[in-house]
């Protein structure tokens, strides 16, 4: 009876997932060159209303080869339900078609058939199989799609090099709340790629229900004892990250030794998970983290990559463009603006006391540094081991209570390890000399040691503590077009051979049915295509294209 009830509950849950949340994936084009960046937009919506979904705050992105092996795995954070970013295509992968897919953790409780997915092509001149298969018959080029009631006012049929392009998107008759605009070389846009791969074996798993990541990424796992192999129960665990803007969080293990932390981190950082207890005898444990990416790899058929000889000739020119732009990229104006929602402050805010080490005469050891220049902090030695005591401002003696010491944001209980750091690695020391309360924990007084490189310096790290590289969210990126209204830049001899002239994402609700787009052409003559992709009231993508020529 209980099993039937559990299955019925899972059925209701999965039914609600399908109705509650879906992601829509849009890329700047369909064909990429190895070493280029892919611009993409992911929108998280409630299917029934076509409004932003409140369920999940992040999505997972994967690029799978035809063997279902991931060659790219990334995470993005939704800012008001939308993430716009770019991903570097590795220059080590083979020329072929690939499956690009995106989903939330909440969506993984249902079939992978519900994930957002596109087929993209990669031409990699640096790989062994650098040339795609040539089609026996010429691939018929699809003409501009003008069936949708979207007007591109102001778009001309031809432009000169480095000329301003200004157009207005008018879509009063289209029920689009979210849309994106891309302007790329026409040879890199192949509309037939937008079809999903043929699903051969799509399964539905009810074995383990994953919770929605409503505020941030859920890092989950189990802790077991090395000695007995049994789960460590009712142990308060804490998580931290090596870096200049530390966080700390806690989780009490359940009857299965499971823990869960909710974090929001951008970029790559080292993650440290350890017991909150200062009793180092409890460090004889093993931590296993739960896999974040979907295990449903779908066994899908990815179509072969076929191009006609004319397309190959045009793509070879785009490859040259990519190489030229790579050479001159360091000298060109900034073309990307990166942003994140990450709080740059440490979890304890602004400290009462901060000591910058290089303002003082160089001292030989960290013990001398603490004793000589750090206020309200003293060292005590008992049975051959050092401990740190912190005084209140108007007291000659420390009150009873613990002190937490950190190195680059990581709690370090063994003070001797801190004292063994060479002072030359140390940038500053921050002290909070009153009890600090975080959530339901009294952390006591805090002494924070920061190294110049934010990598814990030359500290001898306790190898028994779990330490692993964590890949956080990609930064949100905004495309920036060169501004050739600047006369000096207009007449610059630096080459501008961009394959992508523009990429942007927009919301209709904020623009009253019209959006103005402005960008500049580059130095490469040829045909370009404006691709406008919107999300209709059914949560499906609709695409309109229109071409122009740079002479």
UniProtKB/TrEMBL annotation:
It comes from the Bacteria. Gene3D superfamilies: 2.60.40.1930. Residues 1-19 form the signal peptide. Keywords: Signal. This is TonB-dependent receptor plug domain-containing protein. It comes from Carboxylicivirga marina.
């Amino acid at each position: 009876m209980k099993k039937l009830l559990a299955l019925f509950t899972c059925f209701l849950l999965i039914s609600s997932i399908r109705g509650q949340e879906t992601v829509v994936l849009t890329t700047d084009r369909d064909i990429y060159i190895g070493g280029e960046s892919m611009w993409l937009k992911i929108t998280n919506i409630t299917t029934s209303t076509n409004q932003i979904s409140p369920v999940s705050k992040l999505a997972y992105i994967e690029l799978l080869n035809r063997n279902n092996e991931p060659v790219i795995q990334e995470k993005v954070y939704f800012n008001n339900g939308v993430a716009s970013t770019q991903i570097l295509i590795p220059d080590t992968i083979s020329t072929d078609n690939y499956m690009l897919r995106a989903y939330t953790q909440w969506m993984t409780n249902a079939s992978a058939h519900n994930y957002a997915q596109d087929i993209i092509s990669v031409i990699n001149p640096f790989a062994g199989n650098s040339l795609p298969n040539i089609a026996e018959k010429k691939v018929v080029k699809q003409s501009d799609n003008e069936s949708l009631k979207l007007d591109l006012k102001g778009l001309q049929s031809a432009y000169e090099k480095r000329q301003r392009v200004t157009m207005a998107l008018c879509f009063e008759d289209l029920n689009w709340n979210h849309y994106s605009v891309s302007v790329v070389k026409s040879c890199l846009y192949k509309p037939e790629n937008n079809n999903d791969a043929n699903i051969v074996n799509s399964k539905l798993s009810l074995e383990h229900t994953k919770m929605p990541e409503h505020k941030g990424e859920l890092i989950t796992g189990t802790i077991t004892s090395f000695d007995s192999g049994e789960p460590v129960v009712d142990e308060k665990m804490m998580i931290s990250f090596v870096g200049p803007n530390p966080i700390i969080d806690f989780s009490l293990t359940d009857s299965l030794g499971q823990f869960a932390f909710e974090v929001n981190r951008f970029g790559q950082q080292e993650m440290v998970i350890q017991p909150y207890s200062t009793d180092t005898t409890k460090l004889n444990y093993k931590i296993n983290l739960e896999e974040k990416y979907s295990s449903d790899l779908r066994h899908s058929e990815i179509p072969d990559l076929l191009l006609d000889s004319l397309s190959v000739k045009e793509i070879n020119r785009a490859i040259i463009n990519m190489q030229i732009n790579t050479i001159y990229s360091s000298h060109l104006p900034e073309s990307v603006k990166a942003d994140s929602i990450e709080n740059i402050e440490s979890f304890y805010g602004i400290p009462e006391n901060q000591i910058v080490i290089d303002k003082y005469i160089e001292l030989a050891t960290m013990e001398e540094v603490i004793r000589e220049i750090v206020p309200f902090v003293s060292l005590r030695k008992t049975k051959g081991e050092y401990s740190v005591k912190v005084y209140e401002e108007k007291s000659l003696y420390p009150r009873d209570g613990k002190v937490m010491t950190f190195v680059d944001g990581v709690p370090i209980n063994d003070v001797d390890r801190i004292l063994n750091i060479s002072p030359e690695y140390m940038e500053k020391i921050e002290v909070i000399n009153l009890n600090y309360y975080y959530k339901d924990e009294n952390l006591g007084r805090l002494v924070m040691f920061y190294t110049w490189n934010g990598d814990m310096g030359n500290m001898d790290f306790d190898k028994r503590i779990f330490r692993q590289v964590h890949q956080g969210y990609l930064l949100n990126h905004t495309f920036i077009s060169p501004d050739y209204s600047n006369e000096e830049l207009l007449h610059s001899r630096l080459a501008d051979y961009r394959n992508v002239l523009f990429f942007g994402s927009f919301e209709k609700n904020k623009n009253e049915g019209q959006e103005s787009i402005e960008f500049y052409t580059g130095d490469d003559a040829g045909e370009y295509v404006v691709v406008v992709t919107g999300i209709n009231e059914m949560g499906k993508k609709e695409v309109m294209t229109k071409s122009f020529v740079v002479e």
